[in-house]
Amino acid sequence: MSDGDKRDIAAAFIRDSPPGEINDVFNDVRALVGDDALLQQVIEPAFEAHHHEQLVAVAVPDSDYQVILGEHGRVEPGHYIDPRSGQLLVVDLVHQKVLSVQPHEQKHPQHLLDQRSALDHAIQEYAASFYPSSVSTVWATDDGALVAAIVANKYNPDNFWSGRWRSVWRIHPGSTELTGSAKAQVHYYEDGNVQNNTSREFSVVIEALDDPAALAAAVVKLIKKHETDYQIALNETQERLSSDMFKSLRRALPLTRNKIDWPSILSYKIGSELSSK
């Protein structure tokens, strides 16, 4: 295998790491590659792509909140805007922590910043009441849009499973369109490796409102409705899987109605046992 193939495979493993398991995946990849100099060439781009896709969040120094490392907040590699404080965060992408905070000039018009602030507050309240262990961030983009992201994580490594909810919503500038997507990912890895990935896209019309608070309330009402409908559909699908599909996959008992002791199968007299039943 060439060095280029090794780099591509290592980067793919890191980018596709399940929720909360990127450090474990990186350590395993590092042991497999066995060449830190080669791995160094793909570490930061792979971690950055993973963080953007999975909406990984970092704690802001001297604050009581976290910021999502989303593509809409990226200024340059390892540098992200904290839209709440207007500062620039210098981030260690591998260790997922903020190294320093720098001043950053806000270039957006004031009315867009007011809308962003109102939506950010409303999204925080909704996420805190609807999702445990959630983080939300709202960005104002250069094209005049507002983008809101919500991520909620559940990690249980002692029982070999992890899960993550992600949703991203965008208010398009100069229109009454609200588009979004929601994704749910669960990884179960006790004596196996099973992942469940689901997603849904949304597109709805919102009322054109000039007041930032009224706009934020209308947007959050729509987000709550569509995310709730999606989660109800997920629960119904899961119930059908458990009651129908998974049940049909279970192995039926043999004619003896007893489980077979496979280690002792060679000592069985199958013909005589069956004829006596």
From TrEMBL:
Claim: Chaperone is one of the keywords in the record: no
Keywords, comma-separated and alphabetical: Actin capping, Actin-binding
Superkingdom assignment: Eukaryota
InterPro entries according to UniProt: CapZ_alpha, CapZ_alpha/beta, CapZ_alpha/beta_2, CapZ_alpha_1, F-actin_cap_asu_CS
Gene3D superfamilies attached to this UniProt entry: F-actin capping protein, alpha subunit, F-actin capping protein, beta subunit
Assembly behavior: Heterodimer of an alpha and a beta subunit.
Family designation: Belongs to the F-actin-capping protein alpha subunit family.
Protein name per UniProt: F-actin-capping protein subunit alpha
Naturally occurring in which organism (per UniProt): Polyrhizophydium stewartii
